[in-house]
Amino acid sequence: MPDDIKNESNDENDEIDLRELFRALWAGKILISFTVFSAIVCASLYLHRAEQKFTVTYTFAPVESQQASPNLGGLSGLASLAGISLPSSSSSDFIIFKFLLQSEEIGEKLLKDENLVKEIFEDEWDTDQQSFRQPPDGSLSPYVRTLKKLLTGKTASEYITPNAARLSVWLKNAFNASEDRDSGFLTLSSETTKPNLIMKVMAQATFETDSLLKERFIQSSEQTMSFYQTKLSQARAREHREALAKLIAAEDQKLMLVSKGEYFVAKPVTVPAVSLEPTSPKYSLVLALSVVLGSFLGAALVLFRNALR
Q1: Which positions ≥6 away from 75 have C-beta within 8 Å?
Q2: What is the pLDDT of residue 232?
């Protein structure tokens, strides 16, 4: 058979198949409309019962380096003369701030606020007993544990009261920390059903982190001053004594600037902000997906019915 005749025959078969497909779908338009309507109803029920989540954002900028590292003029040469390296603030302080923000060390400090911990783990707080206890099991919990044990061989872990480790894990899940490469700003963001709690946690965690880094700097600076003073008491040359005296004065100036400053590493650019409207679930997207899925499901049922016939 010539190729032209074969191509014409295939085109006719394809055209016939498409016509039959559209004819079958049109014949089942009632079933398709019903599945689309059912999908929209299910989506509507979900939207009525779904928890509304709001987006919380909190932006920070690095504190100017002049607070931690004042202009020491030509003291580097004097430090070299005295045989001592001049201390300087690290450019990675902002990165350390981001890392510590959700660490166990900050979790340990947040644990001191009992009211905040009770609010975070409110499902575990027993008002009558005034203590934390394992939350009651849901209707499916025993079956989930049994299935997990069968699949992995791992039994359920024992309940642990809120501690620094658990609070650190909660902080990592509660909000994200991202740094903008262009501006250098650090933004904390969270999509949550409890925006007031998240704002409170963000404010407390950032304050504790900044205070911790400030304490570390002051402690390191005091140790440096003590070292300089020891060297000063041992120095015999006049030039060495003058150089050490100026270094001690400069270190004292840094301590004074750090103590006076409200923020040490990161300062808020804005106050914690909450979206005016819920950002999850997305109503238009859920309804649009319900129409699409309902259409596909209806079409599949119609074609399956025709195939059985």
Answers
A1: 86, 243, 246, 247, 250
A2: 81
Q: What is the pLDDT of residue 101?
A: 94
Closest CA to 163 of 108, 207, 103: 108
- pLDDT of 107 reads 95
How far apart, in whole angstroms, are the C-alpha atoms of residue 277 and residue 65? 38
Per-residue model confidence (pLDDT) at position 72? 42
- Measuring CA to CA, which residue among 114, 33, 90, 54 is closest to residue 302? 33
Show the tokens assigned to 52: 């509304």
- Dist. CA 134–CA 203, nearest whole Å: 28
Q: How far apart are CA 121 and CA 41, in angstroms?
A: 35
- Given a cut of 70, the residues of the chain with pLDDT beneath it are 1-16, 64-91, 257
Instruction: Please write down the long-range contacts of 102-105, taking CB distance under 8 Å and 24 or more positions apart.
Output: 102/168, 102/171, 102/172, 102/177, 102/205, 103/168, 104/164, 104/165, 104/167, 104/168, 105/164, 105/212
For the stretch 104-150, pLDDT in tens is: 999 999 999 999 999 999 999 988 888 999 887 777 777 777 887 78
- Sequence-distant (≥ 6) Cβ neighbours of residue 124 within 8 angstroms: 132, 133, 134, 135, 161, 162
Contacts of 28 (CB under 8 A, 6+ apart): 298, 299, 301, 302, 305, 306
Provide the whole-model pTM. Answer: 0.72
Rounded to whole angstroms, how far apart are CA atoms 300 and 25? 9
pLDDT in tens, 41-66: 999 999 999 899 999 999 999 886 54
Are 92 and 168 contacting, i.e. CB atoms less than 8 angstroms apart?
no
Q: Closest Cα partner for 62 from 23, 89, 38?
A: 89
Residues 6 or more apart whose Cβ sits within 8 Å of residue 26? none
Domain ranges of the chain: 1-50+281-309, 59-112+162-279, 122-160
